[in-house]
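Q: What would this chain look like folded?
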Amino acid sequence: MQTAPDAELARRVAGGDHAVFAQLMRRYNRLLYRTARAILKDDAEAEDALQDAYLLAFRAMANFRGEARLSTWLVRIVANEALGRLRKRARAAEVTYLDESARDEPERAALRTEVLRLLESKVDRLPDAFRAVFVLRALEEMSVEETAAALEIPEATVRSRYFRAKSLVREALASEIDAAFDDTFAFDGERCDRMVAAVMARLEAP
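A: My prediction, written as structure tokens:
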């Protein structure tokens, strides 16, 4: 599964293989959740958008032709779903922060939670045009080409938006927050399990 080509995975999912799709969700949950969260700025709504996007992706998997990476194709579906929800929303939703620091020692957990909260708040305050580009490039380390393909914008636009977004975040936070990037908008453990279970239940419903 870990080394299977995208086209092979897509073929098996298109053939109705729910087990492979569940593994794909676990592989890409963080990337796709971060994409939705970057656009919507709300944990719960991002999860809802991700669920709906997964169902769309499952039903459309036969349309995957391999011109781009499967992850890029999935990011595009999630981004379109999140942007559609954003357009329908009358006003910005209140951000809900889910504290996942219980796995750390209390003192370190408290400090880490505050650092992550500060970083997430600064990313949330980026202009809409910059935020999704910043999350995909800085947090998920997608290439300029992949980000441009996922968001359907020119590569030059990705470069300029990312440069400006990075400058804004660095000005606000300084370099000591770099170490916290990996856990920002975390989506593993129980949350990952919950997403996979919810999508699989909807797929298997009559």
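Residues 90-103 have pLDDT under 50 and may be disordered.
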